[in-house]
Description:
By secondary structure, the protein is an all-alpha fold. It folds into 3 domains: about 1-280, A middle domain of Talin 1 (Up-down Bundle); about 300-450, Cytochrome c-like domain (Cytochrome Bc1 Complex, Chain D, domain 2, Orthogonal Bundle); about 455-610, Orthogonal Bundle (Cytochrome Bc1 Complex, Chain D, domain 2), CATH 1.10.760.10. Helices cover about 45% and strands about 5% of the residues. The chain contains 22 helices and 5 strands. Helix 2 packs antiparallel against helix 7 (about 140-160), helix 4 (about 85-90) crosses helix 8 (about 165-185) and helix 6 packs antiparallel against helix 7 (about 140-160). It is globular, with a radius of gyration of 26 Å. It comes from Longimicrobium terrae. Its EC number is 1.11.1.5. One of its GO terms (cellular component) is cell envelope. Keywords: Heme, Iron, Metal-binding, Oxidoreductase, Peroxidase, Signal.
Amino acid sequence: MTRIIPIRAAALFLIVFATACSRGVPSTVPAEGSPRAAAARASALTALDRLDATLLWLEASAAKAGPDSLRAQFLRARLAYKGAEHLVELYAPTTAEGINGPPIDEVEEDDPNRTVIEAEGFQVMEELLWPEWDEASRAELAREARITRANARRARGMLEATPLTDAVVWDAARQQIARIVVLGLAGFDTPLAGTSLPEAAASLRALRETVAPYADELRTADARLADELDGSFSRAVATLDGARSADDFDRLAFLTDRADPLARALWRARERLRIPAPPDRRAWRGAAPTLWGADAIDPLAFAPSGAEDAPARRAELGKLLFFDPVLSGDGSRACSSCHLPERAFADGRARPAPLRAGGPVPRRNTPTVINAGLQAGAFYDLRTTFLEDQVNDVVRNRDEMHGDFARAVALLEGSPEYVAHFRAAYADGGSRVTADRVRGAVAAYIRSLQGMNAPFDRYVRGDRNAMGPAERRGFNLFMGRARCGSCHFAPLFNGTVPPAFGKAEVEVLGVPDRAARTAARVDADEGRGAVAGVSLHRHAFKTPTVRNAALTAPYMHNGVFATLEEVVDFYDRGGGPAWGIHLDNQTLPADSLHLSARDREDLVAFMRALSDTAGLTARPVRLPALPGAPGMRGAVARRY
């Protein structure tokens, strides 16, 4: 996978978080500099010291030790890192990326030079050690061990020097449980060694040690809850230790019966100790115990400044504008012309119909807009960050709507009905109609289109009748042996990486220009490469959501595959190479997944269990009259 990395003010967040958590909130434990937080820090520092020693051995021994010894020491180093990962990820996310990020070169999104950063760390070493050992890799292995050790030492220094609060300790534990479930057990950081289960167990043991200094205080406050938390840790670790293999592991049962109860017990324990929850706005709401609640993910965390003040009436206005052809240049096309609510806001076509008869066909498949507000970037090529920018781009695109905001604003200002709607939606600024307000209203409507109550969601929230055996097996395949979940991250099942949700991934798959495997060529669309201007991203496209995929055929950026079965076949065969397409920068592993016919059926069954359009597809009963646009006055909303 290739990541588009925005520059984040992580240090500023930690300072603000530490300050907020040490003021104005009553707690039975000291916040800033408490001995309990200091003990949690000491535990992580000890783990980093073990990591330093194992990496030093690995660097020194790379020139002469046998591959079995090198692999064993590498695995010991990874287990040591899992003892500190929860705090390193929170305090030093960029350094954590250097230690344990994907083995794919990256591009700094906010750098005008689009600087390419070479991959480094554990996963680069893993590719040197597995699946086969090459004697020529010894020098590179030593180099990577040295780089990883330097990054680990940097992380240790940052952790040692930064104030640590009780609130940060418990937030780190909360995030790590989610990281284990949605990344670790999906093989995100152990794609070749296959050690996700022992690493998850090591991580949970570290979390247990992290919160152990609070145990006496918790037992005094609530002995039953203290027993519940301790028992939840024990059961989760025992389940991981007792598993036969990563391929056979029941990830769904672990999620519902082990990880979720543990996360909720941890949440209640923090509340019982009166340690404050994260006060800042973030994608995973600070008030949500787990990732699996219907409103756990906050769409406003992906929105520009000011969007958080939008009243419900703004989304209502945006809905009218979404269905109104007033935004197109000739009044013939609305957003809903391609994003049809009856098709889960897709259009059922490989590519949209041309704006004009005989005109150019838009080059990319129409994606759903349900949950489009829950991602760190828009368009298949991630050329914009916010939905407001996407609306602007689509309206002005000469092949899509060929609109003119000045013209649209003039027409809207001439409609008393629309003026009243704008007044209600933007109460602080009177009834004025502006292009920014049009874009903001449409974006607010799209953010309101959330479908997070699919059969899968209901199942993980307790309705064990919501999914049958095939769907359950499909989830375990999706998150395990089929490797889908290492790119389509739960719970959104798109490419925005949890639990921080601050980065979006693009992938180079080698998508063909035709479904047939004879005479196929790579689709000519260069995707992200055309935007970034770097060869690394040629033919790279955003990882889209799998939610509602059963309703939004055809698939891929060019609509080349007509069914989910064809998509599964493409991935099972290793992508482009099976179509005779060989790209030096392909990020999808080219080896076969060796899925059986039943495996494929179960995967499709699970993807169908991600469907939810309830309450989202109603069209407006009528559109406001537009006196300056004959033929559009008060029309009943229809498929423009």
